[in-house]
Specification:
By secondary structure, the protein is an alpha+beta fold. 46% of the residues lie in helices and 19% in strands. The strands form two sheets. A four-stranded antiparallel sheet has the order 4-5-6-7, with no helix packed on it. It is elongated, with a radius of gyration of 31 Å. The C terminus is likely disordered.
Length: 234
Amino acid sequence: MTWFRKAMERLAKGSSALVVRMCRGLAEWLRAGESVSDFVVRLVFLGIPVGIVWSLLVATTAVMWILVVLWCIGAWRAAQPAQEKSEGKEPNLHSDDLADLLWELAGDRKGVHLAQVAQQLTKEMPGRSWTVKDVRRLVEAAGIPTRHSVRVQGLGVAVGVHRQDIPGSPSPAPVSPSPEGVEPQVNPATATATAPYVRDLGGGVRAKFTPDPKNPVRTAVEVVRPATSKEVTS
């Protein structure tokens, strides 16, 4: 009867894990509401399926046995030993690269869905199709927590990573190099350099700024057109 005792222990362990996951998921889903009315609507939507299942249980015992079987299957899988879970090939991606990818996909939104990450990795790594389960293992291996209800503007609510849980910080936007042959634009009002600098005004018109080394607030401006030139001193 050793196998029976081990099976019961595994079901009990899995049942506890399922209860914890369900409670956490429901709590995060309810907290995802941005207002009191949103919270009330979520409670109503939660009560509808509960009422339907309860009415079916009262009407017939067949539904109860179906739910018992489904629960046992879920509990058995939830208590799956760690060595069995790691039998598959683990995704290969450095934690720093993963964090950069999460920040890139999150942008200025509240977070990123695991499905978004899976889709992006599939595009960037030809020959492999990434799934949400692969991304979850990858994120958990990097020590980044996931949430059951992450709201992403335009995509709704789904399992993902909240921006508060992404390690590091967003990378600064790259500075676009100046077009070839055009000097960087400098505001003459705040310029502190004493060397002349040129600003392209478009249409072949260029402006040359020459700061006065003796008077920081004085700058000579020369506007050069294709055929004429004009010098204005300010």
